[in-house]
Design brief:
This protein has 73 residues and is mainly alpha-helical. It is built from three helices and no strands.
Length: 73
């Protein structure tokens, strides 16, 4: 339907709404964030926009901490 800007705004709103809870309780919300974040990034690309780096910075930092704390196989 080529409504990429609208999709981008909706996914951004979802990421923004989830971000504070994810930063506080990252492990239980990991799957939810892992589901919505790629969709946001994809919609940003399709809309020809730039991702909101201020929004993403603390989320990416939390994701890196989670990965660093994963047990090695």
């Amino acid at each position: 339907m080529e409504r990429h800007s609208e999709a981008c705004a909706s996914f951004r709103q979802g990421v923004a709404a989830l971000a504070p809870a994810f930063q506080h309780w990252p492990e239980p919300l990991m799957r939810l964030m892992a589901g919505i974040l790629p969709k946001y990034l994809q919609s940003v690309e399709q809309a020809g926009q730039q991702p909101d780096e201020v929004l993403l910075a603390p989320i990416l930092e939390t994701l890196q901490k989670l990965q660093a704390n994963q047990p090695k196989a």
